[in-house]
Specification:
By secondary structure, the chain is mainly α. It has one domain (about 5-190). It has helices spanning about 5-25, 30-55, 65-80, 85-110, 115-135, 150-165, 170-190. α1 (about 5-25) runs antiparallel to α2, α2 (about 30-55) runs antiparallel to α5 and α5 (about 115-135) packs antiparallel against α6 (about 150-165). It is globular, with a radius of gyration of 16 Å. The chain starts with a helix and ends in a 9-residue tail after the last helix.
């Protein structure tokens, strides 16, 4: 894994672990449950991405992922708020979503995946952990009904592969694509925008 993709992966791992731990705390889980949900929320997406690419999950030989999760759990426990999900936690989750989309898409491209596959793997990296987290915490999955998490991830991944096709540098592509994810999700939350629903 390239240094940029690895760094982005660690940032996303920390962000998703914080949110997972906070949700577990709000569900009155014990410390073992909090750590488990933090691990699931932060590592599932990247694990699935690597499995689909036919390579071992990154955390099998890089202990830094577990350090990121442990630090995130301490951060979540020490956070003063006991509200369901405060503005700070929501901001961390949005930032983690953007970073995961970029790292997942970039990593897939580095492994010579076709661009359409790279986009799908970028989306998977971003949303799979949160989906399983919500299922285990017995809350309605956010991905399936609000905040356009899937839409913002898809637009970010498509932006990245479009810039890749135009031979834009990785760092610039990462910044622009991440900004797209953050902007779309932030606007959807602020303006209460949703995809159309079946009648």
């Amino acid at each position: 894994m390239g240094s940029l993709a690895f760094t982005l992966d660690l940032i996303a791992t920390f962000a998703f672990a914080v949110v997972g731990a906070r949700i577990a705390i709000n569900r009155n889980m014990d410390y073992a449950g909090i750590i488990l949900i933090a691990l699931v929320a932060s590592l599932t997406g990247g694990t699935l991405r690597n499995i689909f690419l036919g390579i071992a999950p990154s955390w099998l030989n890089k202990y830094q992922y577990f350090l990121a999760v442990i630090v995130a759990v301490f951060f979540a426990i020490a956070a003063p708020t006991r509200k369901p999900i405060g503005a700070l936690i929501l901001s961390i989750d949005t930032f983690g979503l953007a970073v995961a989309v970029v790292s997942g898409t970039q990593f897939a491209i580095e492994k010579d995946a076709p661009l359409y596959s790279a986009a799908l793997l970028g989306i998977t990296t971003a949303v799979a952990g949160g989906l399983l987290r919500d299922v285990l915490c017995q809350v309605e999955p956010i991905l399936l009904h609000r905040e356009t998490i899937g839409t913002s991830s898809a637009l970010g991944a498509l932006t990245y592969i479009a810039l890749e096709a135009l031979s834009v540098s990785n760092s610039i592509s990462a910044v622009i694509s991440g900004a797209v994810v953050i902007a779309v999700r932030a606007l959807s939350i602020r303006l209460d925008l949703h995809l159309p629903r079946a009648k």
